[in-house]
Amino acid sequence: MQCIQAIKKDVYWIGGNDFFTERFENMLPLPNGVSYNSYLILDEKTAVIDSVDASIRVQFLANAKYLLQDRKLDYLVINHMEPDHCAALVDLVEMYPDVKIVGNAKIFTLFEQFYGKPCPDNYVTVGEGDVIDLGQHKLQSFKAPMVHWPEVTVTFEQTEKILFSADAFGTFGTLNGNIFADEVDYDTVYLADARRYYSNIVGKFGPQVQLALKKLLPLGIEMIAPLHGPIYRTPETIQYIVGKYNAWSSYEPEKKGVLIAFASMYGNTTAIVNVLANKLALRGITDMRMFDVSKTHPSFVVAEAWKYSHLVFAAPTYNLNLYLTMENFLHDLKCLHFQNRKFAVVGNHSWASAAKKRMVEYVTEYFKKSELIGDALDFKSSLKAEQEKELDALADAIAESVKA
Ligand SMILES: Cc1cc2nc3c(=O)[nH]c(=O)nc-3n(C[C@H](O)[C@H](O)[C@H](O)COP(=O)(O)O)c2cc1C
């Protein structure tokens, strides 16, 4: 049966929820599921904007069929060729063989790479600013390269001022009946997932997101309809998510505070960061977060890194290298072009130290616009009373910097 909602007169959400898939891109855990959004416009001409993942293909096709009844589908607009949005494209072409497929040249290249050439005569290639006229609704195409993938386009519906934003402004988390951001307690239900989606999926492409925002915001957007998560239709929710994207894509921390990311095999490094966190609390630092990167999936810790201004890394040496789960976490941050933060480093070893040096290397050589606070510390196996003053000095330096 169909499961649809009108988002404006004659404009419908025809996507669906995936509660089943364990990991997005087979890597990032989905404790709250994910939605794949698609949209259908019924005008003098009909159009579907993007399709969905294979997991909800049946629901999506039922939705499209229900709305189109015995009308034909005139246009299939493709903004993004990642498979979580493309699994039903060929089905639509088979159901509506005359459909015109709208996309830029890169979209058609990727389409053929994934699906061969089932319908090369159906292509309508659009460039920057080109408009597809449906009657009342007019779909204008804008490139947003690397706002996740190189082919990404966004489509601006000029009459209702709806931005079909592809992966931009998307979030993990299913839509729970309420498909609009203003219908839910957004900060409780979606904010953490939105930050985790942004930082892990789009985080590397901050400058490209900034360019897209500069180009698109002057259009006077009155609704943002992304490919994942809720739709933003009120000035407040639009301003809110645009504000978050602006901060995230310019690598500005949302909060002055401390995130402690640590790793430990036998608990000695854990004991050290527990004492450090305690000392920071006694110096007035509030709302700290601590994550064992061996236990918590890095995608969650990456998201918290995007939020906080100050980060402490603490880990032992392992086979003359940095302990692997910390190495993986820092490598992940490096690949995401993480930057513009203040850091403290605490190593631990028993005979030949490597962890401290490697963590300092990440901070000073790989994370741009970043600063090491206090002395990088190195402990030998366990915390001794005589070293407490080193931890006190580090806590003083971090607290002073947070409060500055
Ligand atoms: C497999 C393995 C390899 C290790 N390699 C080194 C090493 O190369 N250099 C070193 O100084 N300590 C090495 N250590 C020792 C730990 O770094 C050290 O005992 C540390 O204090 C453990 O901290 P934790 O209690 O937080 O796990 C190794 C430990 C293990 C289990």
TrEMBL record:
<dbReference type="Pfam" id="PF19583">
    <property type="entry name" value="ODP"/>
</dbReference>
<dbReference type="InterPro" id="IPR029039">
    <property type="entry name" value="Flavoprotein-like_sf"/>
</dbReference>
<dbReference type="InterPro" id="IPR036866">
    <property type="entry name" value="RibonucZ/Hydroxyglut_hydro"/>
</dbReference>
<dbReference type="InterPro" id="IPR045761">
    <property type="entry name" value="ODP_dom"/>
</dbReference>
<dbReference type="InterPro" id="IPR016440">
    <property type="entry name" value="Rubredoxin-O_OxRdtase"/>
</dbReference>
<protein>
    <submittedName>
        <fullName>Anaerobic nitric oxide reductase flavorubredoxin</fullName>
    </submittedName>
</protein>
<feature type="domain" description="Flavodoxin-like">
    <location>
        <begin position="258"/>
        <end position="399"/>
    </location>
</feature>
<dbReference type="InterPro" id="IPR008254">
    <property type="entry name" value="Flavodoxin/NO_synth"/>
</dbReference>
<dbReference type="InterPro" id="IPR001279">
    <property type="entry name" value="Metallo-B-lactamas"/>
</dbReference>
<comment type="similarity">
    <text>In the N-terminal section; belongs to the zinc metallo-hydrolase group 3 family.</text>
</comment>
